Amino acid sequence: MMIQPIFSFIFSVARRVGLLVLLVASSSLTLYSMPTDSSSVPAVFRQIIPEISYEQTEIRVIIRNLSQLTKANIQLNMQVTGKTSLRLYQQPLLVAIETLVRQFDLTMTWKGDLLFLDPKPRVEPVQIPVEPLIRISGNLLSIETDPMPTAQFIRRFIEVTGRNIIPDQSLPPMVSGVIRDMPFSEAVRLFFLTNQIKSTEKDRVFYLEPLAGGTTGTPIRRFSGTQLQVKDSLINLDVRQGSVDQLIKDAASQLGKSVVYYSDVQGSISASVSRLDFDQFLSFVLKNTQQTWKKEQGIYFIGDKTNRALISTQLLLLKNRKVEKLPEILPAEFTKSVTIKEIKEQNGILVTGNQNDIDDIRTFLQSIDYSTPQVLIEALVVDFSTSDGVATGVTAGRGDTSSSSVSQYLPGLDFKLNSKGVSKLADGLGMTRIGRLPDDFYMRIQALETAGLAKVRSRPMLSTLNGHKASLLVGTTQWYILKSTTPIRDNQGAIITESQQFKELSANIKLDITPWVSTSGEVTVEIKPVFESPIGQFSPDVPPTISKREFESTIRLSDGETIVLGGLVEESETENVQGIPYLSQIPWLGRFFSNTTKIKRKSELIIYVTPRVFLGEGTRQEGR
To answer: Does residue 586 contact residue 593 with C-beta atoms inside 8 Å?
Structure first.
């Protein structure tokens, strides 16, 4: 008797469990399609298709082909994309559609004979408001909160503590932190300080403003070992094997930049850089990839370097160097895929190519575009001379015949001359071969000129740029007549013709100087002087003899130092005879009625060279 109730109970439970399983199965089916039966589905969707076979084909292509094959009206939402594989044999069109619906998580909506396929609406998770823990115990304050909006925390703080807070409009958007049992004012200061916010208390009111140097905008983004932070519209990046594509998208999102992609960005990067603007950031992360970028009207375009739509033309200006012949010194690897043209009017080059190559050229130009030092060369060319005379014969007259082998020139100047040598004469000016000129140097030179012992041949001041030659040419040109006779024979005899030609003969002072300034401030000077001077009186019939003295030297000096160059010695001898007319010409007895003076003159050419360096604001001065 007890068995029947037991079986009845088991049967009842089994029926309920089976009903539950049936309900679950039915509900799971509704995830993929709406319940259909043969009467509610249009006939065109019930027709049998012998074979359907697709391999990794876009769903839009599959739907279009099925619609054309069966003449069914199917509308696929534009947001649905992707590839799939589908193989069916002897199945209705509806089965193929339902299979695609399951694979792409779509919904089916019927309107008469028209079928709409749309993505399922996504259910956004409900955001549960985060309530901060703010507790006051006596004069001690405790704060504990997960990341939450700054404005929401401030409102809750005012409600709990009754203290007013006046925030700045540029505070960080989120705050978080834990403070346990600290004095009220100190707890408030430390909590906001950990969130890069400065708090100032005045009359029981807290004033909040961004901490100097702290973040004032978007928070730090972290993903896959990467930290990307935007501060003051500049990007700070610390990344290890981060995706270049993800970095660009994240930076563009934080800065609000519009980016159009012509192709997928591949590659990864490990780097730690700071304070890059978005243009610099793109050039940096795309440097070793096959992609480049271009900016037009505030929109950034990213794609392959071979894409002609990404070719840019930019004018790169120079501040200090001349643009002339600049393309010749650019490294070959920079110019392979770009076109460069000199623009002399703007002192720049016009570069056409992708942005990566243009950035490389711009960086190279910045490394060499420094102000060139200007060098002022002060040169003094002096001809020092001494003479020895021998007089023979008889001279009549009256006067003071006292003489001294040592004379003093220019009263008050302790400088004396004698005839012991030209080198000692030059050394008496108060300096060694290399050094700085004494203050009274030029006064002493004037004293020597007054005494006839020195002659300033030239005092040029030449200015030139570092590494460039400066030249000076000063001289005279003499013209003389060159006569020539030419005999010509004819039937009547010889005829002599005479012709005249004017020839020129130049006597010049030429000075070539090339300075080279090192980073230590020393100057290497290449100097080549040439001095030509005529000997004797000028005659229009006979060309004069030209005395030529030249040398070439390379010296190294500090700024403002003077070097003495010499050794160009010239010797000459003159003889002067004076006597009583006729009597002085009597053989043997004539010397008693005449006076003969022989003078030997010796001169040495001395050159004083003083370089002075002038540096511009943009001059490179490493090593100084």
So the answer is: yes
